[in-house]
Design goal:
Layout: E1 4-10, H1 16-25, E2 29-34, E3 37-43, H2 44-53, E4 59-68, H3 72-80, E5 93-99, H4 108-123, E6 132-133, E7 140-147, E8 150-156, H5 178-187, H6 190-195, E9 199-202, H7 209-218, H8 240-259, E10 265-269, H9 275-284, E11 291-295, E12 311-315, H10 325-343, E13 348-353, H11 356-359, E14 368-374, E15 377-385, H12 394-397, H13 401-406, H14 416-439, E16 443-448, E17 456-461, E18 464-470, H15 478-496, E19 503-508, E20 527-531, E21 534-538, H16 553-562, E22 567-571, H17 577-584, E23 589-594, H18 597-609, E24 616-620, H19 623-629, E25 634-639, E26 644-645, E27 654-655, H20 656-668, E28 671-681, H21 690-695, E29 696-700, E30 718-724
Helix pairs in contact: 2-8, 3-4, 5-7, 10-15, 14-15, 16-17, 19-20
């Protein structure tokens, strides 16, 4: 075999250019890029150096052969022709990784099997001795990539992927791989800043991956210096003396680098559970003198290195995965922008994000952007020079940096659309606020898609804001819809004077089946609100609904006024808010029926909160079935059914349009002489069956059951008063 080999370095997609530059610096010749890889030629010493020093590669592959193949038999023959006795003992262990398909190979497992068979058959001795398979720590790891009919057969010199440095045994919820973190640092200019003696700070450091990679670079420590097992460790072509020489050189460089005065490298993390794992990672990397991690909120982030030193702020903020993350994440990015403006003037900043639209909301212009991939997620690296000229007026530019640093942070500037939305909110607040104060209403709807392009419902719950985003029609560009949502969310705290952490957002879509009862989050935060002299519990974060249908406020108040001395029945009772009002109005007894245990538990808490635990019956059951069996008599009945329900606890499906006649007939059979039944629902296309009007005295009272906060949306619900003829 020649002393000069073809080498292929694999890497995450998007890192090819950086890896090409790094590989050339480490001695790879005739190097050129491929998709997610760099290819070149080198002697074995350079291959070892690439294993030890590459901060960006995943694997270092030594190519044994390339051959054309059109069938599984040709694959077998092409692999078997290699003299495997130069690479592995017959008693050794083997692992095969196969990628690609075609040319008679249907799947990677079959391809790997053919490669393994060829190697084993070539090495099998007369006595039947042959290599065993060890997928975890084999003596030889063989890689074959099939690409458009060409097979590239290689030995994997790295063994486990090079991004696994060995220091990160504990990680956060969404960690960056170490080589991707290193690539971000290189693109952000950290090697230059470190060479100049600059500082580095990460305000949301998680378990410290950026910090450790930055310190390894600054201290000239080979990223894989501490790795004990390599893909070449038991390879018969391995040259131990050469490897020991390179490793010793790397150890000397690390010792010299770590002996230098440490740079100021600090990380801050709000989640206390990540502090010790992060510190453990730093300690395992041998960098405890260089890297410090502290618990700290983004709101208080202010890097303070010695001697007014500047440097790089680097951050990988969350991207958002759950429904309703938009609000908290928007404000997180806005706060990051504010902290950079307020505490990091003169610094450089690098924000790595999988949500570039949120990145724009920091209120800082990036002078450069780079595309990366974090697994399958397309990401952007935004590079920012934090200077006063980016975000302040000419008058302020004349002031010196010290004065600028002392000034209070400015609110994020709203877009034109965001300002229009803010103006509408303030106009509505001025008008409805007077009514709400006069009537003692604490919770009301402030905005309900008044401007069609901002398809939101905005409700006030005392000093909280609850936002529901209506699903945009398919004709609307999703990116435009998302941008408008973010515009609106940016406007809400400013327009209403509420804290950013008191805005909760949900996405309102047609709810089918048990989805209507499913949790959106699990924060368990209940808030007590007042309505018409009763106290009610609402939850703005955990469920799609809050526990209080605001549009039914007038109906609940009517029930309170009419309930004195009456037997009250509440069907589909939800959290029993109407029941609490009936009890407050002096009802002789109340019965509340719902299928959901969650809502009945909530109902029990609402009743208990007002001291109404006695004479209040709560029944779990399918309302239709329950009515069919109940023999009670009631003077006042309230029915507000869902539009549709197919809960797993009930038989069949409830459809309000189809089933309302049977429902109302069953309920009217339980109504006492002289009693009143109130029926309402929110199905916009609902039509009351005319046969009911022939049997009962029916009056539509929809207009009487809408307060001023729902006057703009008269179709929010319809309501009727039923009594016997």
């Amino acid at each position: 075999m020649s002393d000069r080999y073809e080498i292929v370095l694999t890497c995450p997609k998007g890192l090819e250019g950086l890896l090409l530059e790094e590989a050339r610096g480490l001695g790879l010749e005739e190097a050129r890029e491929q998709t997610a890889a760099v290819r070149g030629h080198a002697e074995i010493e350079v291959a070892y150096r690439l294993c030890l020093w590459s901060r960006l590669a995943n694997r270092v592959l030594l190519v044994l052969s390339r051959f054309t193949m059109n069938s599984a038999e040709q694959l077998y023959d092409g692999v078997k022709v290699v003299d495997w006795r130069d690479h592995l003992e017959p008693a050794g262990s083997l692992a095969v990784e196969f990628s690609g398909q075609g040319s008679g190979i249907d799947n990677t497992h079959f391809g790997a099997l053919k490669v393994k068979d060829a190697i084993v058959d070539r090495l099998r001795t007369a006595a039947g001795e042959r290599p065993s398979i060890d997928k975890v720590n084999p003596d030889l790891r063989v890689h074959l990539r099939l690409d458009r009919g060409e097979a590239v057969l290689s030995l994997d010199l790295s063994g486990h992927s090079l991004h696994q440095r060995g220091y990160r045994l504990q990680q956060g919820a969404a960690p960056l791989k170490e080589n991707l973190a290193a690539a971000v640092l290189i693109r952000a200019g950290w090697p230059r800043i470190a060479a100049e003696g600059g500082a580095l700070a990460d305000p949301m450091c998680g378990v410290g991956t950026f910090l450790v990679e930055a310190a390894l670079m600054a201290a000239d420590v080979a990223p894989n210096l501490k790795r004990e097992r390599w893909g070449f460790s038991n390879w018969l072509g391995h040259v131990p003396a050469l490897w020991k020489k390179l490793h010793a050189e790397a150890e000397q460089r690390a010792a010299a680098g770590l002996a230098k005065p440490p740079l100021w490298i600090r990380g801050y993390e709000a989640d206390p559970r990540l502090i010790q794992p992060g510190r453990n990672n730093v300690e395992r990397a041998g960098l405890s003198d260089w890297v410090k991690i502290y618990q700290g909120e983004l709101a208080h982030f202010e890097p303070r290195p010695d001697q007014n030193q500047k440097g790089l702020v680097i951050s990988n903020p969350p991207y958002g995965e759950r429904l309703g993350d938009e609000a908290s994440l928007l404000y997180l990015y806005q706060n990051l922008g504010e902290r950079l403006r307020q505490a990091c003037l003169g610094w450089e900043a690098a924000v790595f994000t999988g949500a570039p639209e949120l990145g724009k909301r920091m209120g800082l212009r990036s002078h450069k952007q780079y595309a990366f991939w974090n697994g399958a997620l397309a990401c952007k690296l935004l590079l920012i020079k934090v200077q006063t000229e980016q975000f302040v007026t000419g008058e302020r530019r004349a002031k010196n940096v010290d004065e600028a640093e002392q000034e209070a942070p400015q609110q994020a500037r709203l877009s034109e659309g965001g300002q229009m939305f803010a103006n509408r909110l303030q106009k509505n607040l001025k008008q409805l606020g007077k009514w709400a104060r006069r009537e003692g209403v604490e919770c009301y709807r402030l905005y309900d898609a008044d401007m069609p392009e901002y398809a939101l419902a905005v409700d006030l719950y005392r000093d909280w804001v609850h936002v529901q985003e209506y699903a945009a029609p398919r004709s609307i560009d999703p990116e435009k819809a998302q941008a408008r949502l973010l515009d609106a969310l940016a406007a809400i705290p400013q327009a209403l004077g509420v804290a950013q952490n008191r805005v909760a957002i949900k996405r309102r879509e047609r709810q089918a089946g048990t989805k209507q009862y499913q949790r959106q989050a699990a924060q368990g935060q209940f808030m007590e609100v007042n309505e018409g002299g009763v106290k009610l519990l609402v939850n703005l974060t955990d469920y799609l609904d809050t526990g209080l249908f605001l549009d039914h406020r007038p109906l609940r108040m009517r029930i309170q006024r009419e309930a004195a001395g009456k037997r009250f029945l509440n069907l589909f009772c939800y959290t029993a808010t109407a029941t609490v009002h009936a009890a407050k109005g002096g009802a002789r007894s109340t019965t509340s029926v719902d299928l959901s245990k969650t809502y009945l538990d909530w109902a029990r808490r609402n009743l208990s909160l007002n001291g109404f635990s006695d004479k209040q019956r709560l029944e779990q059951g399918d309302v239709m079935a329950w009515l069919g069996e109940d023999r009670g008599e009631y003077d006042l009945i309230f029915i507000d059914p869902p539009t549709f329900s197919n809960s797993k606890r009930m038989e069949g499906v409830f459809d309000v349009q189809r089933d309302h006649v049977e429902l109302l007939d069953l309920a009217m059979a339980r109504l006492a002489r002289g009693g009143v039944l109130y029926f309402s629902n929110n199905f916009r296309k609902f039509q009351l069956d005319e046969s009911l009007m022939a049997r009962y005295q029916v009056e539509e009272i929809s207009a009487q059951t809408l307060d001023p906060d729902f006057a703009r949306n008269a179709k929010i619900h319809r309501a009727w008063r039923f009594s016997a003829r």
